[in-house]
Amino acid sequence: MQQLSLGSISIDRVGEIDQMWVDGNWLYPNMEAGTIRRHAAELGPRLVEAEHEKLCMSFHSFLIRTGGKNILVDTCNGNHKHRLPKMPWQHMLQANTYLNNLQRLGLRPEDIDVVMCTHLHTDHVGWNTRLLDGRWVPTFPNARYVIAQQEFEHYARLLRENPGTRIGHGSFEDSVLPVVEAGLADFVDLYHLVDGTLEEGVWMEPACGHTPGHVTVHVQGGGQQAIMTGDIVHHPIVLIEQWLTNSGDFDPAMARQTRRKLLERCAGGSDLLLAMHFPSPTAGRVEACGERFRFRFLED
Hints:
Layout: E1 4-6, E2 9-23, H1 24-27, H2 35-38, H3 40-43, E3 48-49, E4 54-66, E5 69-73, H4 97-104, E6 114-116, H5 122-125, E7 129-132, E8 135-138, E9 144-148, H6 149-161, H7 171-181, E10 185-188, E11 192-196, E12 201-206, E13 215-221, E14 224-228, H8 237-240, H9 252-266, E15 272-274, E16 283-289, E17 292-297
Parallel strand pairs: 5-6, 6-9, 9-10, 14-15
Antiparallel strand pairs: 1-2, 2-4, 3-4, 4-5, 7-8, 11-12, 12-13, 13-14, 15-16, 16-17
């Protein structure tokens, strides 16, 4: 993704895993056989592998630079995290890719002022912390970690009610609580202005369903808006087949309703959609196509 400029605000993509090919049924358990093949020509080989019913995903953050602040949205999987037995592809990663890509954009972890969490799933909070001398410490020591109160309370309640259980495959304990214990977490309402104003700034809006306190991140500048989706949308195929349900949805019906509302909001307008799992070039716009939608990458 090329850098986006919205007035005085810039947005960059910080990649951790650029391509991961997954079975369609792993991402969407209710996907019927032949669905991917049926849309292969429209979606193209960058997004689907038709013969084996595979979908391509990416794991990345977005870096917003505005008014002298560096804001990071979601932090991918992270290193050295124990994710067995259910998440073997996340287990004990040991790559320097993510922080190296941040450095290529001219920033060190110490330069990040705000980390925004769209939700608290493992692949969105992993780099919140890093392992140092056997302890989990905040990766971004000078940042405020902005988390929706409703989201945090859900996972904290699960931990209280299920002692000994690894909540979020362990991510709540190793990637969220250490930030809270370090005094760096800000718990906020689902509607929350992070920086600037609604005319030129960054804020959160509620987008619940995938998790109880899921939010979208909105960036407005130069008369244009970009919306970072979190996990409302995992793959462009769901714009076409809107009945698909992600395996991680907390409330599938609400998640579908939230997704439909977002797509209708964006369709045919100038708003940019920045999904957390669309492979490069990532950014694009939504077009209405009858009762369904189509995603157009900016750099196509």
